[in-house]
Every structure is written in C-alpha cells, then in structure tokens.
Specification:
The complex is a heterodimer. By secondary structure, chain A is α+β, with helices and mostly antiparallel strands. Chain A has a single domain (about 5-65), classed as Arc Repressor Mutant, subunit A. Chain A has helices at about 5-15, 25-30, 35-50, and strands at about 50-55, 60-65. By secondary structure, chain B is of the alpha+beta class. In chain B, helix 4 packs antiparallel against helix 5. The chains are: A alpha+beta, B alpha+beta.
Amino acid sequence: MPEDKDIIIEYLKSKESTKSKHYFKDFTDLFPDKGPREVKKLLTQLVQEEILEFWSSGSTTMYGLKGSGKQAGAEGES
Amino acid sequence: MAKHKTPLLDQLESGPWPSFVSDIKQEADNRAKNPKGLTHQVPVDCPEDLLGVLELSYTEKETHWKHGGIVGVFGYGGGVIGRYCDQPEKFPGVAHFHTMRVAQPSGKYYNTKFLRDLCDIWDLRGSGLTNMHGSTGDIVLLGTQTPQLEEIFFELTHNMNVDLGGSGSNLRTPAACLGMSRCEYACYNTQDMCYQLTMDFQDELHRPAFPYKFKFKFDGCPNGCVCAMARSDFAVVGTWKDDIKIDQEKVKAYAGGAIKPNAGAHSGRDWGKFDLQAEVVDRCPSHCMKWDGSKLSIKTADCVRCMHCINTMPQALRIGDERGASILVGAKAPVVDGAQMGSLLVPFVRCEHPYDEVKDVIDNIWNWWMAEGKNRERVGETMKRLSFQKLLEVTNTPPSPCHIKEPRSNPYIFFKQEEVPGGWSRDLAAYRSRHQR
C-alpha cells in the first residue's frame, strides 16, 4: 500500500502535463477518510522536504511540485 | 529630471490633501541622492519606474502587473505576494516588485526604534516604499526581489522579533482596536485576545489549508474602530449585558450646557444649544430612552448597544459592568456574492484569558468550512449557501431570537424534520377524513 505522501506525489505527477498548481481541496479529495488537518500536515511535511512548493496570488494559495510550472526564472528573475 | 513623464500622476499632487505621488517622488529623490551611502539591493530607480508603469496604466486603462507567483520564505505559504511587471524592458526597476506583509503590533503601538529599524531594512533590501497599513491592518512593504526575501525574513524575526503577516488562503494577520489601553468603552481586552489568538493559530497564519482567506478582527465596543463587523469573517465585538450606567447629575450638566457633548469633538463651529431630547433620545434607534427634563431612563431590554448616547454624553453614561463580546460571522467584500456584513452567531461570550470559549467557536467553524467550503469561497458564502442554521448546528449554538432580524422574514431558520411531530410524512387518509376535497 503506497504511503500517503506518495499518493499526493503520484497525483501531482499524473496531472503535471495539464495542471501544475492545485487547490488544497484537491488533496482532501484524495483522502476521503482523513480530516483536512491531517492532509494539511502531509502537505506541510512535503513542503518542508522541498518536494512541494506554494504558489500564491496574494488572495489564494495553491500547491505544486517544486520546479513545476512557471518559475521565477521564467519571469526573468534569477 | 524625472525618468518618466507623468502628467496624469502629477495632477494627483494638486489639491490640499496628501498625495502618494509626492511620497513616491520624495523616495525616488532620496534613493538617487543616497545620503546614507547604502548599497541598494534592488534597483535604485524602482520608485521612478513604479510611477512610470502607473502612468502607463492610467493612459491605457489597463494594469501592467502580473498577479502572484512562487515567491515566499521557506516553509511559509503566506506573507509574501509575488508581483511581476509585464513591461520589464520599459520599467526594469519594477520588473520584480514583490510585496511583503509584516504583522503589526497589537493596537498598532510602535516605538521609534522599531520604525527606524524597519525603514533601515527596507531602504537597503526593498524599494523604500511602504503602506502603513494595508486594509487588513498589517505593515505592507512594497517592492523587493526574490533573493532578498529570506534576508529580510531573518532580520525581521531575529533582530526585530516580528513575524510575517498572512496572505493567500490563510488566516490573515488578526487586528484589534487599542481597547483597554486607552479606551473607556472597551468591554474586553482586545489586544490580549488578538495576541493570544495570533500565537495560538500560527500554523493557520503561515500554512494555507483554507478554501480562501479568513480574517479575525477584535473591536472592544460596538463603535467598531477596526470595523470587525464589516471587514472580518470572524468579528468579536465587545458588548455588555446589564444596564448602561447613568449619572443623572452629569446628564443634567449636559442638558444645561455645562459639559460639551461628544467630549467637545464638534467644537469647530457653533451648532447651537445642546438639545438632549433631539440629539440623544430621538436618535436612539430602538427608542429605548426617555428624558423628562430631570431624569434620563433607559429600557435595557430594548437597547441595541448602538453607542450613540454614550458617545454623545461620555461623562454621564457608561457601558455596563457585565462585559463580554458578541461574535459575528461572514462579513466580506464582494467577489462571488455581494458584500456582506457579519451575521450574529454568538450573542454573548465571556472574554477571559485564555479565551477557550472563543477558540472553540473558531475551531468548529474551521472544521466545517474546511470540509464543506468550495475553492475560493469565503465562510460568509458557505454560510449563505448551506444556511445559517447549519452554522448554528456546527458551532453548537442554540438558536435564539437574537439571530432573527424581525419576525416572519428571516430566511435562515427553519424547522428540521426531527423537530416536527411526525416528521414530513403524514397520514393522507386521516387528513382526508377531516378535510373534504
């Protein structure tokens, strides 16, 4: 049985070609038996391990695989 | 000589009021002269390019900012907001112009050392431009670049003992009025509650897991100096249960003109003799006051705590002694639905350290909203979509007449099936035996 973190990573990889950023709610849907706070802990760990990263518009925050999608470098920022 | 011609912005400098254009020009001039001999870590001319891109937006009536990005400090999902300009060749100074939010001190009490230290950091590592304060109430530092973020964060947290504020789908930086520190109307210690809840809910401030933003605000009394009722998803507004305390001698002094009404606040022109009946009693929204020429009386059961009488005659009338707060939920600005004011959820809650009663309500709301809320849906919208009654249920709040604006027109409160004898089903044959077609 895959570990919970792997489920998240696999899900993100499977969507990577079409979508690089995901709402928190997308992850809670992966774990119908877990509460949102448990899912949050998993995501926080993955961010701490530098596997995931945050994207923020200022009003909304999304999660994505680190390095996936448009990065600061693509904005001309090193 | 200015880098860009800005005729439209220059017009905003005319008139007697302060102008942000003048402020930005002043900072541009200061950075060009560099009196402190700083090695600026972001382009020296970023204030000038900021004016340039704003002038262009005014001319074209289109924004040239791209919203958001992958910028932040390690482990935090909020506090930094990515801003990129879509005309980087024309305006290289603001090609990357990220915003940082910094938690303001409770009640916004500063000492000059704190402000100087903050400015020193921002002169060196940012544009030098700030917004004191943003609409949520936090310190907004405008314009820096990604390599500076961790440096600024280190200096703020290690040298100044202050944290980043909230942004994104997080708990936003909580805000409180100055409360008991200076105000006789404060019904609870707003600053302490704000600080305590900020510390207790750190994780929600920095690591996003909400459907959308969530704001706390703490007003010490219904005067609402931080506009909690209008501007926060969770508003704690001071109130009292017992009678307004009346000093009848002082009331007579106001009526006779010996004491100036509103603590002399409207003394700029002659408004004529103070008329207690017209200016206080007749203006009471619930008509709960009476003045017979020598005695003022208030029917507490009808009082809605509007504060008008207390504000007008602060020496004669005082807030009651049995103090606490009301909790209102769901205020927001228009995005999905229209703007909403907060709806009263808990009519009265005691506000004593460590505020467990208030925290319980917050936890219940979050558990429900995190599970049921749609992406980018404020709690006020979830409440509207799934009913106020559901919110009462999840927060274990018994319905009370306080939740109803007026009889027979409240859209929220309905009988539930289990509350009705026999539920929704009925014996049609028995009904027809009593009622002919």
